[in-house]
Amino acid sequence: MTKLWGGRFTKTAEEWVDAFGASIGFDQKLVDEDIEGSLAHVTMLGKCKILPDDEVDLIKGGLLTLREKAKAGQLEFSVQNEDIHLNLEKFLIDEIGPVGGKLHTGRSRNDQVATDMHLYLRNQTKEIMTAVKKLQEALVKQASEHVETMIPGYTHLQRAQPVSFAHHLLAYFWMLERDYGRLEDSQKRLNISPLGAGALAGTTFPIDRHYSAELLGFEGIYENSIDAVSDRDFIIEFLASSSTLMMHLSRLCEELILWSSQEFQFIEIDDAFATGSSIMPQKKNPDMAELIRGKTGRVYGNLFSLLTTLKGLPLAYNKDMQEDKEGMFDTVETVKGSLLIFAGMIETMSVRHETMEKAVNQDFSNATELADYLATKGMPFRQAHEVVGKLVLVAIQKGVFLLDLPFTDYVEASQLFEEDIFDVLQPKNVVARRNSAGGTGFEQVKIALLKAEELLNKA
Ligand code: ARG
């Protein structure tokens, strides 16, 4: 089969060589974007009188037919035509005759492919942002039901201070809010048009890049034609934002996995998001959470793969850059899938109040409270820390918790203690009193919930 670029060749590559170089196997995902870009390009060629109107109409008609055929799955892509761009150009020529060959006037596959990917990521970023909101909604919904549910807060995975379960869930809401912000901000850099940069140097035709950019809904154009076709930083930015987002999801996965274990029993994942074991009849595994945690690795991998691909490339386009696509597609699917599963998992999980309640009543996570108590009465905090440390030791030796120690032990440790410490030590009071801005005090959590709901309603 002759190639669209075959003029200067005396020999054709063997099929297996073609197959190795072709990207059609994966870049056919860009079929809509490629047609959209071509429609804008040819409309611009008409407006600038580079092609006569009748030819522009013919080409547009052909492209629209191809769009319908693509939708109906009637396009048979071929490896000989290498990639989505050449495949579509070939189909167009088959459809409307040699005039189809005029579509490529004043453009190159290099600005074409960059345009396609800007369009693709612009759409996908929006979809991902919507999915982030969905998950945030699920978190807020669970949180609003658990303002007064307490859970041990951990540092070093050791019980630290009790917190409201809603507060813990909302921590993830705010992480996701920043992830959303990163994706939103990336739109500024995504929404500029490389189209018309040509192979690298611009073109001799009197094109109007601003016009084609406007037709495609871009806010501006790349200022430099070499930059426009050489960089893939817009994809790197997407992969980096996705990596951070997945890192956040993965941490919550880890917690869900721990919390649903026999050891914690803080939550139960709904049957719809868990699986059983083929051998152990009693098992219920938090597979989805594990899988999302696992998939985080592949998103990081996609980021590093593209960074590495680009790091040594001289300007401008190099075929290496064809390697930008699979990782991008894979990341889009992975992130979208993970977010949707996650929202369902959070919405449907059940929270086991009793075990959480039991947990916060059977530990030393109220010890800070005692130190604060002494400090409020004038004892330097450092000294108070020491006094309470000793009391904890006494309790451990007696095999009890702080609330179970007799008052005499307290008075012995410090004359500043009064009977009200037994109230102060109640987990409910411990949490309620942390009423500093952004803290876990119930009043603060209610304020945070209102803020979160307001943000969701705004989006
Ligand atoms: N399939 C190519 C890619 O994805 C399109 C650009 C090809 N340009 C070229 N000069 N070979 O990068």
From TrEMBL:
Pfam families to which the protein is assigned, alphabetical: ASL_C2, Lyase_1
GO molecular function: argininosuccinate lyase activity
Primary localization class, coarse: cytoplasm
GO cellular component, one term: cytosol
Pathway: Amino-acid biosynthesis; L-arginine biosynthesis; L-arginine from L-ornithine and carbamoyl phosphate: step 3/3
CDD domains: Argininosuccinate_lyase
Boundaries of every Fumarate lyase N-terminal domain copy: 7-301
Domain Argininosuccinate lyase C-terminal: 364-432
EC number from the UniProt entry: 4.3.2.1
UniProtKB keywords: Amino-acid biosynthesis, Arginine biosynthesis, Cytoplasm, Lyase
Xref: InterPro entries: Arg_succ_lyase_C, Argininosuccinate_lyase, Fumarase/histidase_N, Fumarate_lyase_CS, Fumarate_lyase_fam, Fumarate_lyase_N, L-Aspartase-like
Catalytic reaction annotation: 2-(N(omega)-L-arginino)succinate = fumarate + L-arginine
Compartmental location: Cytoplasm
GO biological process: L-arginine biosynthetic process via ornithine
Similarity-based family: Belongs to the lyase 1 family. Argininosuccinate lyase subfamily. In the N-terminal section; belongs to the lyase 1 family. Argininosuccinate lyase subfamily.
HAMAP family reported for this sequence: Arg_succ_lyase
Protein name (database record): Argininosuccinate lyase
Organism whose genome encodes this protein: Alkalihalobacillus alcalophilus ATCC 27647 = CGMCC 1.3604
Gene of this entry: argH
